[in-house]
Amino acid sequence: MLGLERAAHPQQQGNGLVFQGASSLSLDAKGRLSVPTRYRDVLSADAAGQLTITKHPHGCLMVFPRPEWEQFRDRIAQLPMSAQWWKRMFLGNAMDVDMDGTGRVLVSPELRQSAGLTRDVLLLGMGRHFELWDKATYDALEAQAVQGEMPDVLKDFSF
């Protein structure tokens, strides 16, 4: 694995794992992502190393342990016809992948292109799944968000 990792190992909460923290990583020349060591054992144990990657409407990719994906997929599949394009985005672009013996997963060329992933990426633990961002895109969007007004839902939040 190449890169800087921040934050803790996956946490148990209720009946599942909660992923948190950020890892700066590099895709190799074949588009493979090396899953951070702190997640490999738990993904092997809880998901048999099976992951599903799909598009996110904000321009990144979502990476799910297979059991979590199956729950998400079932919820998306139940959406009405008025949400058909969203179903296409999530389900129609989903790719099942397996971690190899060294903890790498191949991100398909189609998904890499849709998220603008080239080499430097950021893997964010987002609870029950991960987001995979182009590092420069994420940094720019984060800076833009911080410059904007804080959402109302956070104004009374104590830090």
Q: Can you describe this structure?
A:
With about 160 residues, the chain is an alpha+beta fold. The chain is about 35% helix and about 30% strand. It has helices at about 35-45, 65-75, 85-90, 110-115, 135-145, 150-155; strands spanning about 10-15, 15-25, 30-35, 50-55, 60-65, 95-100, 105, 120-125, 130-135. The protein has a 7-stranded antiparallel β-sheet. The chain has a two-stranded antiparallel sheet with strand order 3-7.
Key traits:
globular, 159 residues, 34% helix, 30% strand, seven-stranded antiparallel sheet, alpha+beta, disordered N terminus
Outline the fold blueprint:
Blueprint: E1 11-13, E2 16-26, E3 32-34, H1 37-47, E4 50-55, E5 61-65, H2 66-77, H3 84-91, E6 95-98, E7 104-106, H4 109-114, E8 120-127, E9 130-134, H5 135-147, H6 152-155
Antiparallel strand pairs: 1-2, 2-8, 3-7, 4-5, 4-6, 5-9, 8-9
What general form does the structure show?
globular
Give the N-terminus to C-terminus distance in angstroms.
Answer: 33 Å
Beta-strand percentage range:
25-35%
Number of strands: 9
For the CA atoms, what is the radius of gyration? 16 Å
Order of neighbouring strands in the sheet with most strands = 1-2-8-9-5-4-6
Which residues form runs of ≥5 with pLDDT under 50?
1-9
Which class do the helix and strand fractions yield?
Answer: alpha+beta
Mean pLDDT, all residues: 89
Count of runs of 4 or more consecutive helical residues = 6
The helicity comes to 25-40%
User: How is the biggest beta sheet arranged?
Assistant: 7 strands, antiparallel
Instruction: Spell the H/E element sequence.
Output: EEEHEEHHEEHEEHH
